[in-house]
């Protein structure tokens, strides 16, 4: 061995292995493919409701967004020289959730560009599945909302050429914000209202969301935190105006709240890991939704609320590290 090689060997740092305090649990049941399959199954009621209300508009949006997400995943994976990854189902879930967050009247290119943005800007630039900071579907929706405001904004939800009565009216939150018109709780619950494809039927969101929580694919603490925060803040608002037509139930059933609480905020990659952190995250999403609904120019705030809280997840995880069994690990003596 030469002298130079010997010096390099001597100064090479020893490998460092850090293991968190026990206990350590391991399971093979919650595989990525199984979790994505659960999400796709849970989205079936929302797809059925969207098809019943928006018909061919829903078909076009779902097919375009899902196909574009799969193509984008394949192209970006090939560009990075990584193994083919469509089998895990994550790209299909991203495309379908993006489609359900868009109006059925949006042009086809909006969904296609949104899907490429969701996969490219929301996932691939961070290193791929499991490394993304933000929810990919919401990154894609935010991109097209900024790039094509007329196609995704409030005016995009009214299609006067449609034979379906629901899509010839303004969305419930837009009607409330701009005209002060209330919507019946029955319409919000069943889904005979206008809006994004996946947000109109609260019943469909509850069926799919409860399925995810029962299967433990979604952490129930997050939607519970979202709904609790909205209920508290909306209740306080109602106390200041007892004549308000928009009640706590309207805020919970209306808009994309339930869709966002069960299917977007619960993304396991971009949400906290600890039980306490999940409550904080959910409550933060709910509080921001109410803040944006009441004080901003947007009738809905679920997308922005989730993205803002996604950015805080690393801090929430750090603040809510649980105490190990047996107490804190003692500091080493110098």
Give your account of this protein's structure.
It is a single chain. The protein has 334 residues and is mainly α. It has a single domain (33-319), classed as Ammonium transporter fold (Orthogonal Bundle), CATH 1.10.3430. Helix content is 58%, strand content 0%. It has helices spanning 3-11, 32-42, 44-54, 56-79, 90-100, 108-120, 136-147, 149-152, 172-179, 185-190, 202-214, 221-240, 248-253, 257-264, 275-295, 302-319. The longest helix is centred in the first third of the chain and has 24 residues, at 56-79. The two termini are 37 Å apart.
SSE map:
Blueprint: H1 3-11, H2 32-42, H3 44-54, H4 56-79, H5 90-100, H6 108-120, H7 136-147, H8 149-152, H9 172-179, H10 185-190, H11 202-214, H12 221-240, H13 248-253, H14 257-264, H15 275-295, H16 302-319
Helix pairs in contact: 2-5, 2-11, 3-4, 3-11, 4-5, 4-6, 5-6, 5-7, 6-7, 7-16, 11-14, 12-14, 12-15, 15-16
Name of the level-1 CATH class? Mainly Alpha
Do you know the CATH topology? Ammonium transporter fold
Radius of gyration: 22 Å
* Number of helices, counting only DSSP H or I runs of 4 residues or more: 16
Measured by DSSP, the beta-strand proportion falls in: under 5%
Catalogue the unreliable spans.
Answer: 19-26
The 3D shape can be described as globular
The biggest beta sheet reads: none
Write the CATH architecture name: Orthogonal Bundle
Percent range for helical residues?
55-70%
Distance between the termini: 37 Å
- Average of the residue pLDDT scores: 83
What structural category characterises the helix and strand content? Answer: mainly alpha
Give the SSE order as H and E letters: HHHHHHHHHHHHHHHH
